[in-house]
Amino acid sequence: MIPVVDLAEYNLSVEEKTTDTATLKDLAGQICQAFQTVGFVYLKNHGIPQELVLRAFSTSKAFFDQPVEKKKKYSIKQGEYSGWIGYEEEKVNHDRPVCDAREGFALSIWNDMSFPENVPQEIELASKEMFQSCSQLALRILELLSIGLNKDPDYLRQYHKKMGHKGNVTMYRSNYYPPLKELKPDQARCGEHSDYGTVTFLFQDNASGLEAKGPDGEYVPVPPMEGTIVMNLGDMMQRWSADKLKATKHRVMASPDSVSRLRQSISFFVVPDDDALISCLDGSNRYPDITCVDYIKKNFNANLKDFSEK
Fold first, then answer.
1. Strands (E), the chain
2. How many angstroms separate the CA atoms of 235 and 242, rounded?
3. Which residues form the Fe2OG dioxygenase domain (predicted)?
4. What are phi and psi of 216, to 5 degrees?
5. 159-171 pLDDT, tens per residue?
């Protein structure tokens, strides 16, 4: 069962540095305990307004509802981190014979970089507000992870100072799973994978399908829970913690009854600054040192098809 962590005493409406140490240690312990076992938690009372989340869903749906020819001008290019990823253009589990039954729009929003040209203003505003709110929440989660790993509270935050600026590719992504009559043989809506960054926030609509791999190797549902964020650990944070914390594989499936239903989600992939050196926190040599930018390039581009095939 995936635990629920209540952030009411340290959410975005609570002024930083005013929460007592005992509360911070308790929250840190709950999160790290979950990341040592199931790798997933629900965050409730996080402070991101539900009105904003619903507006982000609504505006992203308006984008995906456009004809393919209109969306093509926003297509993501190999080696870049922003743009539209078309239906069946991505395969996150290379063992599956067909690409994922979804499309997406990925945004690495830099304050000193203009938003993609001609994207409707409503989408731009909602995306930027979500990016900013998620970034602020991420800094608090990084503080709790640092405490849980017996480090200075600001330890991990110092490696994420550039979120929203050049030098950091933290990513906001809208995911769109169109209604279908049926999936192709052995096709998933999103194949089995683990995320590559520090942590990931996932906002779900009311459609089911997300599953996480349990300690016994079986996949268990991660159903939508209104007003919560699903948070999971990324591969880079597992590496950083020398495997003390676990990045859990997950996927999005569809039953014969649910495949005909639209599903939307919003992901926020928290990533360290490009020049951050990922070195095992316990001082061991379990993994060799690697810069964040090298790790991200290797893992992100591997998921996209060769665009020369188009």
1. 4-6, 40-44, 83-85, 103-107, 171-177, 190-193, 199-204, 210-213, 219-221, 229-233, 250-252, 263-270, 277-278, 290-291
2. 11
3. 168-272
4. -85, 5
5. 999 998 989 989 9
Mean pLDDT of the chain: 91
Q: What is the pLDDT of residue 304?
A: 47
* 9 token code pair: 């005493």
Q: Which two tokens stand for residue 191?
A: 């194949």
Position 121 scores a pLDDT of: 80
In 184-296, where do the E strands start and end? Answer: 190-193, 199-204, 210-213, 219-221, 229-233, 250-252, 263-270, 277-278, 290-291
What would the pLDDT profile of 187-226 be if each residue is shown by its tens digit?
999 999 999 999 999 999 999 999 999 989 999 999 999 9
Please give the C-alpha separations between residue 168 and each of 5, 111, 164, in angstroms, as whole numbers: 28, 11, 7
Nearest CA to 84 out of 103, 58, 65 is that of 103
Q: What is the DSSP letter of 259?
A: T
How far apart are alpha carbons 217 and 96 in whole angstroms? 18
